Amino acid sequence: MPQRYGLIQHPAGSARQTFGLPALVAMFSAILITLSALSLFFVGGVASEAADTIAIEKQNVLFENAIRDRQNLMARDQLGLARWDRSVEHVSLNFSRHFIENELVSSLWHDFGHDRSFLVGPGGRILMAALQGETDFTQRNLDPQVSLGALVELALVRHNTNRLKIDGGFSQRQVKASHVEEIAAYGFVEIDGSTMIASAMAIVPDDGAVALPDGPPVILVSARPIDASFIDDINAQLKLSGLVYSQNPNGLVPAIDVQAQTLGSFSWEIYRPGHEIWVVVVPVVVVLCGLLLAATLVLGRYIGRLSLRLETSERRNRELALRDTLSGLANRLCFDQALTNASERLAHAPFAVIASDLDRFKAVNDIHGHGAGDEVIRVVAERLRHAVGEHGLVGRMGGDEFVILVSAFRDRARLSMLAQTIIASIARPIMLPSGALVDVGISLGIAVAPEHGLSGHQIMARADRALYASKDGGRGRAVFAEDLPNADGAADGAAVNAA
User: Fold this and answer.
1) Which has the least CB within 10 A, 169, 253, 309, 499?
2) Please, which residues have CB within 8 angstroms of residue 154's CB and are 6 or more apart in sequence?
3) Is it the case that residue 12 has pLDDT exceeding 60?
4) Among the CATH numbers 3.10.20, 1.10.3470, 3.30.450, 3.40.50, which is that of 85-230?
5) Which of 411, 362, 401, 361 is nearest to 381 (CA)?
6) What is the DSSP annotation of 282-325?
7) For residues 481 and 418, what is the distance between their CA atoms, to the nearest angstrom?
8) Is the pLDDT of residue 287 over 80?
């Protein structure tokens, strides 16, 4: 009887079958390894393409948002000048060249950096054109077929949509600064062969002291060229490699005017994270091709880290968008958001706003240069931040203009003390890197909510009026809005002077 376990004689063909099993296992393993490798290469290709697609889409969205923010910011810069009784009085009702040169054009150029500005009257008649601070009052007709003319027509449509009938004439519906696009028209335009971003809005009353006559209003237009300075400014937060603008319409993001005509395009070196994915996938395929699950987990972890980096970068860009790069203070967008939020909580948490402007700052720039002016802005920002502390938020609106949202208190006594502290702090000499000593002062205008308004725009307008009164009264002072003459002609009150 044959033994169950032992040396058994097999037919000759059986020997070949014994040697065939390892070959089958090897072949199966080879097929499995091949399928695993192909699967990993397929997954790597899909992930690389998806990462590239997501990265490109995010870069485009971030850039378009940055352009839209700049256009919206230009409209907000204009808002305080276009929605102003004095502008109506000295432009629409009584055309004053002195006012236009020293208030409108000067503010748009020196305070906000708008290189070009125009006043366009009824029928598309250009009443004034300015290049930086130089004005030209030669009147001429604006062609409605060009992009600038189309932008003015759109601003007229926005005004007519929001026009209101008031005593003595017409005005315009009040909107929040955060919704300025409801009354303003902005976009890309071509002026003198150069592509610019521009904003246009009607000149209208702000508090009803004057009224517009029937008929089309005067439109205020300002523009900034798409030049190297603009590219550097917008790329300070985006950090796009090789960002340029050209008149070639086939770039990554086209510049399209309100007539849907392409004026040029923006391009940059697209960041493609897919290459980084392949750097990881290929070694995984070579070393762990038989461990598909482990390789997939490694790839998943890498994609997770990549998404985290992208999200961190996007969050950092959002934070940079809310900070003034020179002073480190809240910028105009951040402060407007904080002021809007404070206005919405006004019933439960009253607040105060202090508008401020440096005295003798222009002399520092003229004598010591813009680098010295930047150093003064940084020192003043730090002193304001230290003086205000946890009592509120300090923001820089541009140039030498600062504004403070005081949320910790609103009584006159403590606001006066804070104003005196600020005036005394800013008045201290400032040593420049060159060793020279300079001194500047500061003028303050203080408004309290809800006594001086319920909306952020109303409070800011009253604070600005108080600031103008402080400047007119000798500077280096703080004036409360409640001490200004009211609509009925009440007497002025007192101001807080530097000690």
Assistant:
1) 499
2) 185, 200, 258
3) no
4) 3.30.450
5) 401
6) HHHHHHSTT-HHHHHHHHHHHHHHHHHHHHHHHHHHHHHHTB-T
7) 16
8) no
Phi-psi region at 293: left, alpha or beta (left = phi > 0; alpha = psi -120 to 50)? alpha
Angle at 112 between CA 390 and CA 84, to 5 degrees: 90
The count of residues in the chain is 499
Q: Is cis: bond before 450, omega within 30 of 0?
A: yes
This model's pTM is above 0.70: no
Residue 497, pLDDT score: 46
Q: What is the average pLDDT value for the chain, to the nearest integer? A: 84
User: Which pLDDT does position 325 carry in this prediction?
Assistant: 87
What would you report as the CA-atom Rg of the chain, rounded to the nearest whole angstrom? 32
Please give the CATH topology (third level) of the domain spanning 332-497.
Alpha-Beta Plaits (3.30.70)
| pLDDT attached to residue 207 | 84
Per the listing, tokens 């190297």 go with 228
**pLDDT tens-place string over residues 140-152:** 998 877 889 999 9
DSSP string, 146-165: SHHHHHHHHHHHHHHHHEEE
Angle at 467 between CA 461 and CA 472, to 5 degrees: 130
CA atoms within 13 A on the CB side of 10: 9
Q: Which residue has the higher pLDDT, 177 or 275?
A: 177
Q: 471: which DSSP letter?
A: H
Q: Is residue 385 packed enough to be buried (19+ CB in 10 Å), middle (13-18) or exposed (0-12)? A: middle
The pLDDT, as a whole number, for residue 347 is 84
Among 489, 481, 492, 457, CA closest to 207 = 457
Give residues with Cβ within 8 angstroms of 328, minimum separation 6: 378, 381
Phi, psi for residue 359 in degrees, rounded to 5? -100, 140
- C-alpha separations of 105 from 98, 114, 189, 471 in Å: 10, 9, 19, 19
Question: What are the structural domain ranges in the chain?
Answer: 85-230, 332-497
DSSP state of 408: S
Give pLDDT tens digits for 101-121.
Answer: 999 999 999 999 999 999 999
Contacts of 470 (CB under 8 A, 6+ apart): 443, 444, 445, 477, 478, 479, 495
Count H helices, E strands: the chain? 13, 20
CA–CA dist 329, 322 (Å, integer): 9
- For 478, list phi and psi in degrees, rounded to 5: -120, 125
Q: In this predicted model, which residue has the larger pLDDT, 275 or 367? A: 367
Amino acid code (one letter) for 349: A
